Amino acid sequence: MSGVTTSKSGAPMTVDALPEEQPVALVFNGSTAAVMMASPFDLPDFLRGFACSEGIVTRGSEVTEVTAIRHETGFEVRGRIPEERAQAVDARRRAAVGPVGCGLCGIDSLAQASAFPGQVAPMEPGLMDHARAALAALTAGQKRREDVGAMHAAGFFDATGLVTLREDVGRHNALDKLIGALGDRDLSKGAVLITSRLSVDLVQKCARVGLRGLFSLSSPTRAAVDLAGRCGMTLCVIRREAIVPYAHAQTGKETVL
Length: 257
What we know:
The protein is α/β, with parallel strands linked by helices. It is 28% helix and 31% strand. Strand 11, helix 8 (222-231) and strand 12 (234-238) form a beta-alpha-beta unit. The longest helix has 12 residues, at 171-182. The protein is globular and about 50 Å long. The model is unreliable at 251-257 (pLDDT under 50). It is found in: Cytoplasm. Pfam families: FdhD-NarQ.
């Protein structure tokens, strides 16, 4: 909700409500995999999505017994994963607190920042024609942004329209929450639309879970375009005048602009 303060002249001024941001620890089998600054809602989705997008598990259903615990200094989200999967947590320890602008904070090895996430199949033909309608639905569905502003959103859409969306102050957190919300759904017929710039970590996360298309309103980084092209992922920016494909796979051949 909004508050009231005074200007230099003494006149009352309305202060907009601000988004909440808290440290969130993501814990698997009692071991902390990451501590991220995030919006403290949809936390079970956050844990499951992070586990999938970081390659800790291959399906969200592998994360069980999920509980979110509020502490005085933040939140802890706990889940159980198969013991063989728990080794991935130990191999990729991310115990540093990450600011909302970066999805790679706290990684142990620089090699992980540019790791190849695997090949994806070409995006469903004709899906690009549904991107603008999905954007309109995403904009209308951002209820938290209406309340406090400064919120990123990530949504999944297919030929039927926008399926679901998630919001967070961090763009990579919004994507992880979305992936977690999608569960074990077949992602081959759809794509992701996100309100932030397209960076390499977002391409990595999408590719790891088999997402074939990634759309945004902001230009991608060169590293994101290069990686999407190598993965076979379609990477597009929705501009006012046109939808611009920066990386686009057709019949097995990559086109990178």
